[in-house]
Amino acid sequence: MANLAMQLLMILMALVAFVGAPLAIIWGWVRWAKDSSRSTFWSKACFVGFLLANASICIWIGGVVYAQIIGGFAYYDPRLMKMISIGLWLAFVGVLTSFIGCWRPSVLRWIAPLSAAGALFFWIIAATGE
After folding, report:
1. What pLDDT digit, counting tens, does each position of 28-44 carry?
2. Tens digits of per-residue pLDDT, 106-125?
3. What is the pTM of this model?
4. Per the structure, how many domains does the chain have?
């Protein structure tokens, strides 16, 4: 039973990382571009968390492109380990700041934590795969 629970947790994390995060990022940029309301501390905190999640995803995409250029990473390659640690920390801080911004309504109120959590789940999956 514990094995089934762990498998379901990993499936849920993968869905959030590979489906939820990209959709949340696209949806967040569209909503943010259309927003004309005044910004508050809470909305700025959500936006910072959203930007950190985007930076983490950019490291992910950049790592994939770089791996294609160099022909792949070796097992426990120091460059890959550095990318995983930076991406993991960016996503973790993004989760914290976006949750701080969730206390008051804003355009990115629920989008920022979803995208940051998706990025964090991706990096956790990447780290466990290495």
Report:
1. 899 888 886 778 898 89
2. 888 889 998 999 899 889 98
3. 0.84
4. 1
Please report how many Cα atoms fall inside a 13 Å half-sphere around the Cα of residue 29, on the Cβ side. Answer: 8
Residue 23 pLDDT class (50, 70, 90 cuts): confident
Least Cα distance to 98 among 34, 24, 22 occurs for: 24
Among 116, 1, 101, which residue's Cα sits nearest to residue 41? 101
Structure tokens at 112: 């920022």
How far from the centroid of its chain's Cα atoms is residue 91's Cα? 5
Q: What is the 3-state secondary structure (H, E, C) of 6-73?
A: HHHHHHHHHHHHHHHHHHHHHHHHHHHHHCCCCCCHHHHHHHHHHHHHHHHHHHHHHHHHHHHHHCCC
Domain span at 103: 2-129
